[in-house]
């Protein structure tokens, strides 16, 4: 008679065949694929930046032509903000959520698979522009009317608009999956006030995605219509409005920047308590701050448009909201500091990244406050001061938490610890390199240097800061390389991690490293926020981690009600399937058709898409099949 | 009370340090030369001061706990959460008070700089092009209108009204030492004003990415005494002088028969090209190509022969002229003062 583990393995395993590779719906595999692919985009974006910083290190250089520079700065921003920053967080969330929630999978496993394939294919679609020498070149923000056919006649901006619409399908279905999972796919007893902070942050941004992406999709569709269907949404001479692009873009764009940082903050909220050996101080405040930031993020978009000539009354309103949104961030920062104060922190590498993150977050937030003051923003906007601000917030609140998260959770994923020694070098080289690269940009901006310039004249007082920034950038790049070295070192020589190398509190640390395919042999019942610390915290009720429902009749997991995690039901989860891959490939064909004006190709793709979706949704009676064969 | 930052001792000290690092000739908003820019700079210095203090406080709070750090993970030492009382006070209440102060400063600065203190006597229409600035001094009497490019002259101490528009894509007009920036957006007219309180030459940049040569779209504002300004206006109003010798006569003929006339105007010569800058007084302009090169006979020759070398992608084509024609053309253009 097979053991529970063997039977569950039988149900949940994906064969190591080509079919298995292409059809898997295992959230851990999908999560790891997201992490690797997003990391590749990070490196591509970094390469683009390295080339730019070489060009800008000295005045009046000719290493890059203006066309090349314009393509590089556009692709750097676009790649980093869309194909790295959000997907890397999706990768961590995808891998960790079911493990943190006490579940065996995400709510919609096949949707999960399709969101990865679309992410990958949309990135490939975007980068085919490189091989055609027509990479997008109008900035990641693509202001009209510079992006109209008249001023951008080649395919560059079609790669941009179609590539982003393509990616947005992935982002949207991913968000739907996270929301459904967070609300329903939990272990019994994991009531809403016991959810790990990382669940709250990704849940918040997933909701924000649903409201923000449509604005971008509409803007991109209008751009495509202007360029190819003779419409005039953004052309003033024909009654359209260039400012409409800015509004639609930033109504999406501002929430987006919170989308790419809040989960990073959520991960830090899980790392700091572990290394301070106590639960997060002010959990409720942090959760409320997270949700409030997500909501307020929709009320500040005009602060990107302070210089456009809008009425002062409107600017004053948006200035006020932009200042207000600092407050929930302040609450989070002081929650982390409160956790830190009076505890005796353990300075392992994940904690170093967490502490560095706090310092950079505060600098980035403060420079943001300076730009929220409308009249001073009239001097700062579109200068290198803004470049400094955005990198402090993006690298500080996304990249540093991501590195910390890698050091913290890679042992769970691979079963091996990373080198502490190399980790410390990694942190310090990145931290010092980052500050040397980006702090001087505040000064360059205050000395009047505009942004998005492929070169600058000498004698303006900008030479020294630019040289320092370039040197710092290369040092930072070395830091990133050190991480890659550490990762490969750990796969061969890393110490065995064991289930819970950090003695942390959340459920993912109760299973083996790496976890079995089915995550939990028994579904836990949760009775507090920190299940693995209950014995030492002396909580009155104790979670039941090693005994509970086994659920081995097929791929099964539990669902509960969103607030109190009661009314436990059993869900049948889908098996591996090729339909997600076929859907993604059909979409790829459609988008290439639209790009190259092959309307029949696009139509053919649409037909295949329809067939694939029908196949995917075709009802099957899984339970009946299982009963017949048992 | 006018907030002239150059009178505050702290600002003076900071300015000195800027000067010491050789940045005194940067077109910096922190080196204001006008009252509105001084208001903006004062707000800026306050924000920098608040930012520095907040950062140092947080840094202190971050580093102090590290003095008692532990070195091993011990199973027994999990403790309950603590310090929760301070979170709302330090994280919400104190920041709220600081931010209210920032907002008050914002509103005060807005009201001090939004409109000029007296009604401006001159109005200039600034049109952004890819990649140069077309300048029209408007006048109720059309024969009093001045057309030039990339260069604005103003009398010291007087506010000047601007109407900022665009002929093609979005640009942004920005002379940091005199004012904040205002975008030039097609289909929209943005009303603005500038003023200089010290004579000098102030550089501006285009501050909205507008295509390939966004980096070379500078302008200058020359602030001078009332007499100098009026003299400049009179000169600008005059049409081009007639050529007086055979070389300059040949030069004008070259201008009229070369591709130049397709894009450029020299008033008084019967030419009317509108795509490029008006050249009637080209010889006295401070720069060529919207700051791409300085203006001298040598650079002018280079610009005409191969503008693409200085400003690749600009609309100025390479003009092939033999040596004699080029010398004649240059001689003629140098008379256009």
How would you sum up this structure in a few lines?
With 630 residues, chain A is an all-alpha fold.
Write structural notes for this entry.
The complex is a heterodimer of chains A (630) and B (337). Chain A is built from 21 helices and 2 strands. Chain A is mostly helical and 630 residues long. Chain A has a two-stranded antiparallel ribbon. The radius of gyration of chain A is 25 Å and the shape is globular. By secondary structure, chain B is α+β, with helices and mostly antiparallel strands. Chain B has 3 domains: 5-63 and 85-113, no CATH class; 122-236, Immunoglobulin-like; 246-333, Cupredoxins -  blue copper proteins (Immunoglobulin-like). Chain B has helices spanning 9-20, 35-63, 84-113, 226-237, 246-257, 260-263, 297-310, 323-333, and strands spanning 122-129, 132-138, 146-149, 151-155, 160-166, 171-174, 182-184, 190-194, 200-206, 219-224, 287-288, 293-294. In chain B, a hairpin with a 2-residue loop joins strand 1 (122-129) and strand 2. In chain B, helix 2 packs antiparallel against helix 3 (84-113) and helix 5 packs across helix 8. The longest helix of chain B has 30 residues, at 84-113. Mean pLDDT of chain B is 92; it is low at 1-7. At the A-B interface, helix 4, helix 11, helix 12, helix 13 and helix 14 of A face helix 2, helix 3 and strand 9 of B.
- Briefly note the structural class of the backbone of chain A: mainly alpha
Q: Compute the number of structural domains of chain A.
A: 2
Query: Biggest sheet of chain B: strands, sense, closure?
Result: 5 strands, mixed
Q: What ranges of chain A have pLDDT less than 50 throughout 5 or more consecutive residues?
A: none
Overall average residue pLDDT of chain A: 96
CATH level-two architecture of the largest domain in chain B: Sandwich
Largest sheet of chain A: 2 strands, antiparallel
Low-confidence stretches of chain B: 1-7
Elements of chain B, N to C (H/E): HHHEEEEEEEEEEHHHEEHH
User: Architecture of the largest domain in chain A, CATH level 2?
Assistant: Up-down Bundle
What is the subunit organization of this protein? heterodimer
Q: Provide the CATH top-level class of the largest domain in chain B.
A: Mainly Beta
Give the CATH topology of the largest domain in chain A. Cytochrome C Oxidase, Chain A
Tally of separate domains of chain B: 3
Beta-sheet strand percentage of chain A? under 5%
Query: Quick one: overall form of chain B?
Result: elongated
Alpha-beta classification of chain B:
alpha+beta
What sequence of helices (H) and strands (E) makes up the elements of chain A? HHHHHHHHHHHHHHHHHHEEHHH
Q: Got a strand count of chain B?
A: 12
- The CATH topology of the largest domain in chain B comes to Immunoglobulin-like
